[in-house]
């Protein structure tokens, strides 16, 4: 039958009968041997379908039911299994048992009355409609379970599983069980069916029972034993599989796995399934509020859930879920606990921050104290139920208040104790900090600037170390040091102000010499406030330099009092006082608004006007605003290039009212166009009776010619001469390229634009006759300057209140920091213009403004205030009336301190000696009217001396204009130190800020224009003098390239309609002409832009340059610092030119104005003024490298310009009766003849890798056959092939990483092709500069640099060039060849300046630090930086001369030197060492390095 089932193609079907000990309790004990559990686990292996309890005691009805069906066997059903060969088979499982009646406890009677041993060995079973058995609960409730009948009501048995219980069964003897099993096996053997012994309950098995069972099996032939555990589901499948293999002889013998090995595998499988299930639960269940029904539904389809439920059952799965939820809840509670405990210290800090409040309280009292606090409920919550973690509060995440019962936990108690300890420690540390600060303040060893390491041993003790961390006491010490240093700096600044006379007497400029700095330090050296900064010498020197900058350049911004500056406060007071005046006077407001706008016409053909307009717009801000003297003006430009008679090209339109015109030309044709256009415009203006356009200020400008060279035979000199003639005809200012350093590619520099625009602002009043006449009618009878000290205890409000509160006070017509006061003076009421100024503003502007008297205030309690007053009065002429006013705190008659009494007495003595008036004001006391009455007598004195003061002022200006006033430019007091517009040479020097003038501007009278312009001619008194100077007043400048006048033009007087009785008008015109003529120094005056060499300053006329490039050091990797000098103040010439220039011929002396006795200064009459005047004659006016005239007189011929020693006689040495202090000072100024020895300095930058090519001596990378380093040759070839047109070449820095990459690659492969690697031009240029920067010695050797400087000092240009060339020949051979190669390359780069914007000057600025690398640790090197740059510029510009043995090029205004050849020719010839013949080059925009004498 079994074979038939195989042959029909269906899976084979087997019937297995499970037999074992059965019967009553007496026979089998209280529990069975596990036959039912074995069948259950095999048929339904899932854990949820497995039942441990299967009873054999049944009622009669259950026994007769369809499941038992009155039989003593159970049909467990049919199971499909895949055996080892993966062949599926079907197995019917039948359990042979014996059911016991629950009434009689005897076996039920059935159809088969045989005993169990014989009945169990039956091979054919039959029972009609018998149902499959599930569990005991099924009996009597068959309808609730699946009803599956035994197939055909009969089954043939194919094999037997003989069960042996090896556990310690209750009331059962194992030996008897084994005897029963032996009998049963004998019956089974008779059937010839295979049988397998199954040891059940091995999880509780007894070792002896197991051995006996195995021994029993061994005694039988081919009887196999399988150890199983239905409860643990171990080897159940193996038992049935082994039997099936015995039934089917074709199958191989089964491998029997021992129980413990199988148990281990099963346990591993369960553990893996459990891990996967726990992972699934952790992924799905995130909240401890989740419920099992919801979660189980989510996990039903998950294989992890199914596997675990199959192995362990749903209940265990639920148990794991509940454990996970409980863990989540505990974690949540713990998180909340941590949050509460983290907040608890903050709550304690907020509620009980005072240690005294809780230090001795018990915990219960502390809790009551907390509850009584107003903010208790902000931090805590009292719950009705406890503990807090069992309430809903734990789930209220938004409520972070601490449960009050949490305080009872040990963790909270520890935090409270920590809070107490922290308060105690803080109190102790605060005491230690306080003690430490007191120790610092009381210690004499702690001085400003003393490092902590030096002060530590004097102020530290064990308590400080114990209670304070190092960072704490270092911080306290640092703050204490800051207070000390700040206090010391304030005291030192006050000391500098107390020595104001010294600084003004020394006539300091922007870069004081070492001699003057030595004088300052010697005078101040004994002062305690000077010594207090002994350890901060650098900062002390910086304060001195800052103060010198203030003295040299006094502005509101540089004022030491800063926010308390008098000038700033006066502006605020005047604006607030006269605000109503402006509101009630709309016309005045409109006039002021108009001042903020400048309309400029730019006239020029062939694109010149548009180009200049674009250049000017580039200098403006984004909203077309231009900065003039620190103020923003709206700038409107109208470029005109066509017929001006056409409306589209008209100077004036309904919306554009011009204030001035820039006329541009670069050829005869463009100059003719300018002349014709001006004539047409003026004719149209006369026809329209438009006086505004007829009087339009003009400026004629010669600009660079595109392409360079001569055009049509025109030379630069001829164009300059023609322009000067036309400027004379048109009565306008003329500017040429030689003025103030115009660079290639630029038509006009920023300084000149600022001059023109400032002149337009000054001239705007001339274009408004109504305003001019109104101002004339509002003119003041007296002009008085009131000077106050910045930072005095008495503020400007208190001092000026009596004046500003007066009803007779109104703003001055000219604006500025001035008011007009109508007050009785003598028998009449007079208009007194009061200029309200600080002392530093008065220093800067008193020489160029007419003032009839000074009212000088000083604080009686402040020494610096009286010292500044003394310095101010020291140079005031004794004819000018002065009123001294002492401001005393409290009563002026009875000052409350010695300093006030002393200074009141000194001020009164000064007033007596200089015959001035003196008054003492108590601060804040007295009425306004009573204080004004103090000045009545002073005003009367000023009115009486008005004429003589005006005459003296006119004399000063006339002498200044004619060159007679040699001391006009020598002092910060003279003219104005603001006149020095040139910035300091070295990059470290701050650039002077734009000056300002607190005085109102006086509009010059308008000149009458000729009616017939065509008949204008140039009127010259000889070929050297310009015929026209009148228009210069509007521009506050003078022509930069006009030959010096042989005879000064007498001032021109114009008739101005106004008060004919006003006597000052003619003087004012004369003053105006004189001042305008002298506002700019003549070209031969000293130019302080070159501080290093006075000879250069004499020989080289530089106007004010616009410094576009400033490279402080190559270590910046090519970074360019752009400096724009917006409208710097006028240049301060000092008059120390060459001997030939200083000498004046007898004819010139005859032409000077008649000698007038110049008024003396107050210093000559008052012993208290000019205490340091003795220092003035003995000091040179220049910087470190300058030698004064007095010193030069005693230089011996063989001494090389120096002295033999310290004891050498000096021309200015003090006599026997002279002050010994001055003698000591002068002796300290002597110089020795020893020159500083050039020393090697380290490389500016080091490559980050070890290179055998970069950073090595130059001789190591060149050979006689190849004198140029391969790297330099490749770089220059690449740059000349691809980068000559690159804008800013050598100025714009390359990428640092790309430069390093280039050097690395070349270091590895000297045949590197730069073009193939596609490096950027700027990176190649930067790498080439880096090569020179990394040389151990600079390309220009240190030993040669001093010789170059000495050669550069030669005044004669031809001799200078020859001397420089001789020094070049002394270079080492390899240095000379490389230097020649590089300079020739830079010369070719400069030829392309119109494209790359790199002139020879710009290239020298970028390259001189790389080629020379001076030692900046010495003052000489710092001051000679300009000289170094100029030397390199000379080499670049005059390259053909220096390296081709040609004679020096002629020096003409149009041609500074032989021009370099074209790039192509030069590139071809440089390699052979020759240069192409000179061509006519474009004029170098920068001024020539040295003009010929």
What is the element layout, followed by pairings?
Elements: H1 2-7, E1 13-20, H2 25-28, H3 35-43, E2 57-58, H4 60-64, E3 73-82, E4 88-96, E5 100-101, H5 116-120, E6 124-126, E7 154-156, E8 159-165, H6 174-190, E9 195-200, H7 207-218, E10 224-227, H8 236-247, H9 259-284, H10 292-299, H11 303-312, H12 314-351, H13 355-358, H14 363-372, H15 376-379, E11 380-381, E12 402-403, H16 410-442, H17 452-459, H18 462-467, H19 470-498, H20 500-505, H21 514-524, H22 528-531, H23 537-552, H24 566-577, H25 579-584, H26 586-595, E13 597-603, H27 608-619, E14 625-628, E15 631-640, E16 660-665, H28 668-687, H29 691-694, E17 698-702, H30 716-730, E18 733-735, H31 750-763, H32 769-777, E19 782-788, H33 796-804, E20 809-811, E21 818-825, E22 828-838, H34 839-845, E23 853-859, H35 863-873, E24 882-888, H36 898-913, E25 917-922, H37 928-932, H38 936-944, H39 946-962, H40 1064-1078, H41 1094-1099, H42 1139-1142, H43 1146-1151, H44 1189-1193, H45 1220-1228, H46 1270-1282, H47 1296-1308, H48 1314-1317, H49 1321-1333, H50 1342-1352, H51 1357-1369, H52 1373-1391, H53 1393-1396, H54 1400-1412, H55 1419-1423, ...
Parallel strand pairs: 1-4, 1-8, 2-5, 8-9, 9-10, 11-12, 13-15, 13-16, 16-17, 17-18, 19-22, 19-23, 23-24, 24-25
Antiparallel strand pairs: 3-4, 6-7, 14-15, 20-21, 21-22
Helix pairs in contact: 9-11, 9-12, 11-12, 12-16, 16-19, 19-23, 19-35, 28-30, 39-40, 46-49, 47-49, 50-51, 54-56
């Amino acid at each position: 039958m079994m074979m038939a089932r195989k042959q029909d193609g269906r899976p084979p079907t087997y019937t297995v009968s499970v037999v074992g000990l059965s019967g009553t309790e007496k026979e089998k004990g209280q529990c069975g041997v596990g036959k039912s559990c074995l069948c259950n686990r095999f048929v339904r292996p899932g854990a949820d379908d497995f039942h441990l309890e299967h009873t054999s005691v049944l009622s009669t009805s259950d026994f007769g039911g369809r499941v038992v069906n009155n039989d003593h066997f159970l049909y467990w059903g049919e199971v499909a299994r895949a055996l080892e060969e993966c062949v599926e088979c079907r197995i019917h499982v039948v359990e042979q048992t014996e059911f016991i009646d629950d009434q009689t406890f005897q076996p039920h009677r059935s159809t088969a009355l045989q005993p169990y041993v014989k009945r169990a060995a039956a091979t054919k079973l039959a029972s009609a409609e018998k149902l499959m058995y599930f569990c005991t609960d099924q009996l009597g409730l068959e309808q609730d379970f699946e009803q599956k009948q035994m197939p055909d009501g009969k089954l043939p048995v194919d094999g037997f599983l003989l069960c042996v219980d090896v556990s310690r069964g209750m009331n059962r003897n194992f030996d008897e069980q084994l005897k029963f099993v032996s009998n049963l096996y004998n019956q089974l053997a008779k059937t010839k069916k295979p049988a397998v012994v199954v040891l059940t309950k091995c999880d509780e098995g007894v070792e002896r029972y197991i051995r006996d069972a195995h021994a029993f099996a061994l005694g039988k032939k081919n009887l196999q034993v399988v150890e199983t555990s239905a409860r643990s589901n171990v080897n159940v499948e193996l038992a049935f599989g082994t039997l099936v293999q015995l039934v089917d002889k074709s199958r191989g013998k089964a491998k029997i796995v021992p129980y413990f090995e199988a148990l281990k595998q099963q346990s591993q499988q369960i553990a893996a399934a459990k891990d996967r299930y726990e992972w699934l639960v952790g992924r799905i269940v995130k909240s401890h509020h989740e419920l099992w029904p919801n979660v189980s539904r989510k996990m039903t389809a998950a294989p992890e859930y199914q596997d675990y439920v199959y192995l362990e059952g749903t209940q265990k799965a639920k148990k794991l879920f509940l454990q996970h939820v409980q863990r989540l809840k505990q974690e949540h509670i713990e998180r909340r606990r941590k949050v509460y405990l983290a907040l608890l210290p903050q709550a304690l800090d907020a509620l009980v921050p005072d240690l005294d409040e809780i230090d001795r309280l018990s915990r219960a009292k502390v809790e009551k104290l907390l509850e009584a606090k107003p903010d208790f409920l902000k931090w805590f919550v009292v719950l009705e139920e406890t503990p807090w973690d069992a309430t809903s509060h734990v789930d209220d995440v938004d409520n972070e208040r601490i449960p009050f019962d949490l305080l009872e936990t040990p963790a909270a108690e520890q935090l409270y104790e920590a809070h107490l300890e922290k308060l105690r420690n803080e109190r102790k540390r605060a005491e230690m900090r306080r003690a430490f600060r007191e120790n610092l303040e009381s210690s004499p060893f702690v001085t400003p600037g003393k490092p902590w390491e030096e002060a530590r041993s004097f102020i530290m003790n064990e308590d400080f170390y114990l209670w304070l961390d190092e960072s704490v006491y270092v911080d306290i010490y640092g703050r204490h040091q800051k207070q000390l240093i700040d206090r010391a700096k304030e005291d030192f600044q006050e000391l500098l102000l107390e020595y104001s006379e010294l600084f003004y007497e020394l006539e300091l400029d922007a870069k004081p010499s070492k001699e003057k700095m030595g004088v300052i330090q010697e005078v101040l050296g004994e002062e305690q406030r000077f010594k207090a900064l002994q350890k901060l010498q650098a900062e002390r020197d910086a304060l001195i330099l800052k103060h010198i900058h203030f003295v040299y350049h006094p502005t509101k911004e540089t004022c030491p009092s800063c926010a308390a500056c008098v000038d700033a406060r006066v502006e605020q007071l005047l604006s607030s006082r006269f605000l109503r005046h402006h509101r009630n006077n709309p016309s005045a407001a409109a006039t002021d608004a108009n001042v903020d706008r400048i309309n400029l016409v730019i006239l020029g053909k062939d694109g010149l006007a548009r180009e200049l307009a674009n250049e000017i717009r580039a200098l403006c801000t984004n909203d077309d605003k231009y900065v003039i003297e620190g103020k923003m003006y709206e700038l409107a430009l109208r470029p005109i290039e066509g017929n001006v008679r056409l409306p589209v090209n008209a100077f004036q339109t309904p919306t554009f009212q011009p204030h001035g015109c820039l006329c541009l030309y670069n050829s005869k044709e463009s100059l003719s166009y300018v002349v014709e256009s001006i004539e047409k415009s003026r004719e149209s203006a006369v026809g329209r009776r438009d006086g505004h356009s007829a009087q339009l200020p003009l400026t004629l400008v010669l600009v660079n010619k595109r392409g360079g060279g001569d055009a049509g035979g025109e030379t630069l000199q001829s164009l300059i001469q023609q322009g000067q003639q036309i400027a004379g005809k048109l009565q306008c200012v003329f500017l040429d390229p030689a003025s103030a350093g115009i660079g290639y590619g630029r038509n006009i520099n920023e300084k000149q634009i600022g001059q023109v625009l400032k002149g337009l602002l000054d001239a705007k009043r001339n274009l408004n006759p109504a305003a001019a006449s109104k101002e004339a009618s509002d003119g003041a009878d007296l002009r008085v300057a009131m000077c106050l000290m910045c930072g005095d205890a008495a503020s400007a409000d208190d001092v000026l209140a009596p004046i500003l509160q007066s009803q007779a006070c109104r703003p001055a017509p000219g604006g500025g920091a001035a008011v007009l006061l109508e007050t009785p003076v003598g028998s009449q009421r007079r208009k007194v213009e009061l200029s309200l100024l600080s002392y530093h503003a008065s220093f800067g502007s008193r020489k160029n403004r007419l003032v009839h008297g000074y009212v000088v205030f000083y604080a009686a309690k402040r020494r610096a205030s009286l010292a500044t007053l003394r310095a101010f009065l020291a140079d005031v002429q004794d004819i000018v009336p002065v009123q001294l006013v002492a401001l005393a705190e409290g009563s002026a008659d009875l000052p409350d301190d010695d300093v006030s009494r002393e200074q009141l007495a000194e001020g009164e003595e000064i007033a007596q000696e200089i015959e001035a008036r003196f008054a003492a004001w108590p601060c804040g006391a007295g009425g306004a009217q009573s204080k004004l009455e103090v000045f009545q007598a002073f005003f009367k004195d000023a009115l009486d001396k008005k004429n003589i003061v005006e005459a003296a002022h006119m004399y000063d200006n006339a002498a200044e204009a004619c060159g007679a006033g040699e001391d006009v430019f020598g002092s910060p007091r003279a003219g104005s130190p603001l006149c020095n517009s040139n910035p300091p040479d070295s990059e470290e020097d701050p650039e002077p800020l734009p000056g300002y003038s607190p005085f109102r501007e006086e509009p010059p009278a308008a000149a009458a224009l000729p009616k017939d312009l065509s008949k204008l001619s140039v009127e010259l008194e000889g070929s050297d003098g310009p015929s026209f100077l009148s228009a210069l007043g509007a521009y506050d400048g003078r022509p930069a390239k006009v030959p010096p006048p042989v005879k000064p033009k007498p001032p021109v007087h114009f008739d101005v309609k106004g008060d004919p009785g006003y006597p000052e008008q003619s003087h004012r015109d004369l003053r105006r002409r004189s001042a305008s003529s002298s506002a700019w120094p003549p070209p031969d005056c000293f130019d302080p832009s070159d501080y290093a060499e006075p000879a250069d300053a004499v020989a080289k006329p530089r106007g004010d340059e616009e410094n576009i490039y400033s490279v402080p050091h190559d270590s910046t990797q090519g970074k360019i610092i752009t400096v724009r000098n917006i409208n710097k103040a006028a240049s301060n010439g000092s008059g120390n030119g060459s001997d030939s220039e200083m000498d004046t011929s007898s004819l010139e002396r005859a032409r000077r104005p008649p000698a007038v006795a110049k008024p003396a200064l107050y210093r000559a009459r008052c012993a208290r003024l000019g205490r340091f005047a003795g220092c003035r004659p003995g000091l040179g006016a220049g910087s470190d490298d300058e030698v004064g005239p007095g010193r030069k007189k005693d230089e011996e011929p063989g001494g090389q310009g120096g002295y033999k020693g310290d004891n050498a006689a000096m021309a200015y040495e003090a006599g026997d009766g002279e002050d010994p202090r001055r003698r000591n000072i002068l002796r300290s100024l002597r110089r020795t003849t020893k020159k500083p020895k050039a020393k090697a300095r380290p490389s500016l930058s080091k490559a980050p890798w070890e290179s055998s090519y970069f950073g090595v001596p130059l001789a190591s990378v060149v050979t006689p056959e190849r004198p140029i380093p391969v790297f330099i040759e490749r770089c220059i070839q690449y740059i000349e092939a691809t980068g000559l047109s690159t804008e800013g070449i050598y100025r714009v820095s390359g990428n640092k990483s790309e430069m390093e990459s280039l050097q690395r690659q070349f270091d590895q492969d000297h045949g590197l092709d730069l073009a193939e690697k596609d490096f950027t031009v700027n990176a190649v240029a930067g790498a080439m500069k880096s090569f020179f920067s990394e040389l151990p010695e600079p390309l220009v050797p240190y030993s040669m640099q001093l010789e170059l400087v000495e050669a550069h000092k030669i005044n004669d240009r031809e001799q200078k060039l020859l001397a420089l060339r001789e020094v070049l020949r002394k270079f080492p051979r390899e240095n000379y060849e490389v230097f020649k190669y590089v300079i020739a390359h830079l010369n070719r780069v400069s030829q392309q300046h119109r494209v790359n914007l790199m002139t020879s000057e710009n290239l020298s600025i970028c390259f001189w630090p790389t080629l020379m690398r001076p030692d900046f640790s010495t003052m000489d090197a710092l001051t000679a930086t300009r000289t170094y740059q100029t030397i390199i510029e000379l080499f670049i510009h005059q390259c053909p001369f220096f390296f081709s043995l040609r004679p020096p090029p002629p020096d003409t205004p149009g041609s500074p030197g032989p021009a370099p050849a074209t790039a192509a020719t030069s590139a071809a010839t440089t390699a052979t060492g020759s240069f192409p013949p000179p061509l006519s080059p474009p004029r170098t925009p920068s001024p020539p390095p040295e003009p010929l004498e």
